[in-house]
Amino acid sequence: MPRRDEKPVLQELAETFESLPLRAGVLTAATLALIGLTLPLFFPSTGLNPAGSFAIAGRYLTWGLSFMILVSAGVGAARRWIDGRRFGSGVRVADLGWSEFEGYLAEYFRRRGASVTYRGGATPDGGVDLVLEDVSGRRIVQAKHWKTRRVGVVIFARFGEYWTTNVRKAPSS
Asked: Which end of the chain, N or C, is more open, meaning fewer C-beta atoms within 10 Å of its C-beta?
């Protein structure tokens, strides 16, 4: 049974293609679709040939994967576009909701040259909302945008505990 903080492989793959530029996702999806198209040509389905049957199944599998990658790349591009418009719109930070605030922070770090991966959202994220990677290395961001409470010392202490027990020991993937 996977640990609670582990994600399914397809979700990890989708998140990876969300963070890449749209061109990379489209190019990867097109390459997979082309491989799926040509696969049965190399392994024709004649008679009781199992290779031909696997090639046809592989065709549909690569097309499905290609579609998932294309959708993920599109979602990531749309998210970056929305975050960019919000960042340049002059909206007050106090008027943003928590998910909009995470997007605002993501755009801020993107404009400073970091590659941003979303980890937060409506599901439990283990204390990590954004993962930043740039020339200075890998950093994590825990966004707090509370309208009714102040972020106190206890939150930073808990985050420090999480950092020392989980993040520093985690392999950089």
From this structure: N
